[in-house]
Amino acid sequence: MNLWFTEEQTDSLRLSFKVKKVLDYRKSKYQTLAVYETEQYGRLFTLDNFVMLTEKDEFVYHEMISHVALSCHPSPENILVIGGGDGGTIREIERHSRVKKITLVEIDEEVVNISKQHLPFVACGFNDKRVKVIIEDGIKYIKEHKNEYDIIVIDSTDPVAFAEGLFHTEFYQYVFDALKEDGIMVAQTEYPFLKSDFFKQIYTSLKKVFPIVSPYFAFIPTYPTGMWSFAFASKKYHYLKDLNPNFISEFENELKYYSTEIHRGAFAIPPFLKKIIQ
Ligand code: SAM
User: Fold this and answer.
1) Residue 97's pLDDT is what?
2) Which of 6, 30, 128, 151 is most deeply buried (CB count within 10 A of its CB)?
3) Which ligand 1 atom is nearest residue 61's CA?
């Protein structure tokens, strides 16, 4: 008998993975967490039955949410990550020896625990002595920090429940205030192919707060529609004019998706999306 995990991406779109084994299934006070061994994509981590990452394609998301901003900032010493409790984003940030301190603020400690138990390829991010993990709501945390961070990465779940506030204009203003005068914010901003109203709303909000704003894109096979978006929102540095290829030279050949060419291409906005956000 074949076992399948099916993600209900919308009420009329599903993605199914053939499962070899259910490795873990647990409930925290915030969400349901599960890890599966799948035929096609290796280990699969889900929260509330939504795909968070798979062993086979997580590198795309984690390289693209990290190296784009780090390649445009001349002195990214102090980094804040909100969400990202699996460790994949901080694993990528750690490649940059210019980074001196990484604070990860994750609301659900069970995410860190299940990742350390079953997802070593991302949980390895927790081994670096520059990392400090704080279990707290990022919406609360950000209000208590001003003019402190060079880069802030919002690596959150979808905009529902306790993550919903991470996509509000008010939150973006707090992020702006928590950044230094030349800081950059990056956030995952969902899939514009089917969420165009949401996409328009996010970029309208960000442009109210930051002087330099652009979406950029990557292809993530196991995320809905495969076309994933990220927001680059900056106080001073530009995502193309201030791109410095030397900033990844020490580890460039270890990367599997991000490159300087991919960086430049990722900011090309297809005409159908330009209409939505301009
Ligand atoms: N990095 C993965 C990926 O490849 O997309 C998924 C993102 S990570 C698992 C999303 C995290 O955001 C979850 O662990 C969730 O608990 C966390 N989160 C959601 N809302 C939050 C909030 N308000 N404050 C802190 N963490 C939050």
Assistant:
1) 98
2) 151
3) 4
Mean pLDDT of 52-72: 98
Strand 101-106's sheet: what is its strand order? 131-135, 101-106, 78-83, 149-155, 179-188, 227-234, 212-219
Query: Rounded to the nearest 10 degrees, what angle do helices 169-178 and 196-209 cross at?
Result: 40
Tell me which residue has tokens 């084994």: 21
| Residue 155 is among the residues annotated as catalytic for this protein | yes
Q: The domain at 3-54 falls in which architecture?
A: Roll (2.30)
* Ligand 1 lining (C-beta closer than 6 Å): 52-53, 58, 61, 82-86, 88-89, 105-108, 111, 137-139, 155-157, 162-163, 166
pLDDT of residue 195: 94
Same fold, 3-54 and 58-277: no
Q: What is 58-277's CATH topology?
A: Rossmann fold (3.40.50)
